[in-house]
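Sample 1 of the test manifest.
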Amino acid sequence: MSRMPLPKSDGAPPPGRPLPGPLLSSLLLVALGAIAGSLLRWLVDDLAVVNGLGAFALGWLSATAAGRPRAWLLVGGVGFCGSLTSFSGWILELHTHIQGSGWWVALAWWFLELLGGLCLAALGMGLGRWMQRRWPPQTGNRLRH
Amino acid sequence: MILSQALLVAAGAVPGAWLRFLLVNHLADRLPSRASGTLIVNLLACFALGCILPGLQRPGVPPGASLLLVTGFLGSLSTFSTLMVELLTVRALGPLVRLVLGSLVGGFLALMAGLALGR
């Protein structure tokens, strides 16, 4: 099975970084999440809403990832949340607001979305940590950290 | 109609997410933090968005092109949620301010540079 290129030195990834795993199945899992995430972003058609939702969901997913199959983060995190939320759209909104309502309103809006995203991600993380303690995952196919 | 539009969005989203996944993993070994890899991918998406937006507004361009390239590909290539979670894991003020300002100023400049080039 083909694998992601690992650091040349000893083949061991640096600590704190999840193993990419077999490349082909990783790409398949990421694609599954990306299709669902991008379609939801397109259907909702409100970037502030999907960005907030995605920040909350990724906070929750990252706090509950330990002890779960790697699909947890590949489908849910990299694929779904990554595709549900958009940074380029956020910057394009900034550009549109600057032209429509001026620099200060545009910057205030940008920072409001930043603060909202941070709060929602922290909320998701807190909920995930609590759930992880309350209902710890079954042992089995564990994520390596 | 809505089905073919959805297909265009999904067809753009899959390579966008793949490119982000591969680039961030590739850059993670070469940069001081994983967050800088995410930032680079985000800035790249802003630059590309600026490059193609003027072209998409020209007459004769099929409406599906924007769904495929902007909503699908660039929307999936860039990510907001990862940036938020990475900002929460930064424990020092310096890197935090750098990441926020890099996203704001860098993203805006990348978009403007792309727009200038695309016109």
